[in-house]
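Justification of resources, computational component.

The compute hours requested in this renewal are based largely on the per-chain cost of generating structure records like the one below. Each record pairs the submitted sequence with a full structure-token output. That output is archived, and it is also reused by downstream analysis tasks.
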Amino acid sequence: MKWFLAAFVALLIAGFVYWQRQGVKVSYVNGLTAYNALPGREYIFQRDCYLFKLDDRPSSWPYVGDHAVVASLPAEVDPKHLDVAHPAGRIIDVVRTGSRFKLVSVRRDESRHGTSISFELLFVDEDQRKYPRIDGYFIMDHSPEAKGEAPRLLPGYAVERVKF
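The structure output for this chain reads:
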């Protein structure tokens, strides 16, 4: 009986270690110098995009992007592709050119596979959206991260709204 209990405890410990190694540590880095000027800025989408979930890259919120940044998405952004099974996941909504959003938070995801920075975006008209908060990971230029600088939104996808 003692060996059974010891084996059970060893199995629990092994399961916990495995779970920890596979997990993703999420931290918000808004307060770091490189990122503290980003939250609160308002942007306007410059092209139609999809909101989608990926099977191999889970996120708290749907991602935004199109075929140019995620090759498995259909080339033409069209509502007829909603809720249709795609190789990488599921398309759940369409975002139209001119939609406005605010950058609300900068998030760092750390796992044993590496570290990535993403922007949490919130539509200005959030009360009219089924998915008001989205993850901007795929519409970001991540190249500045190699130099320790903050990533930026790709200019072909969104531009900062200038308030007069």
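DSSP finds one helix and eleven strands in the chain. Residues 25-160 form one domain.
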